[in-house]
Write a structure and sequence with these properties.
The chain is α+β, with helices and mostly antiparallel strands. Helices cover 50% and strands 14% of the residues. The protein has one domain.
């Protein structure tokens, strides 16, 4: 079993244990560590796409612009990418809103990571 598959299996077991009330402190800490690593990976990908400077179409032309929002009050993350640059009123070419508990309401962190990897290849960044 690969390291990534093992981490996903552990996280899945944790979510099941959490829902049934059978969570110990070690499991909780490990699951939080896995989630944090995935959040950091997604942020790194957004920075790879966007860079650290200002990105508006009027300043950078058609260079891609990426946004990353962490919503602590709802426990979710929002990631958007504007492939042809951002300007007022533009719609993103990619949007994902995964929840921290990786519930059925949004995509998984792993699928967002894969999507952003694909986008980076397509955008040549």
């Amino acid at each position: 079993m690969s390291r990534q598959a093992r981490a996903l299996w552990k996280l899945t077991n944790y979510i099941v244990a959490e829902r049934t009330g059978k969570v110990n402190r070690r499991m909780k800490k490990k699951a939080e560590s896995i989630r944090r690593k995935k959040l950091h990976r997604i942020l790194d990908q957004v920075i790879d796409i966007n860079g650290l400077g200002k990105r508006q179409a009027k300043l950078t032309g058609d260079k891609p612009t990426a946004f990353y929002w962490f919503n602590g009050h709802t426990g979710d993350l929002s990631v958007t990418v504007h492939s042809m640059g951002w300007h007022t009123g533009s719609n993103p070419s990619y949007r994902a809103d995964p929840y921290l508990d990786e519930s059925q309401y949004g995509p998984s962190f792993d699928s967002v990571i894969r999507d952003l990897d694909d986008l980076k290849e397509q955008l040549h960044v």
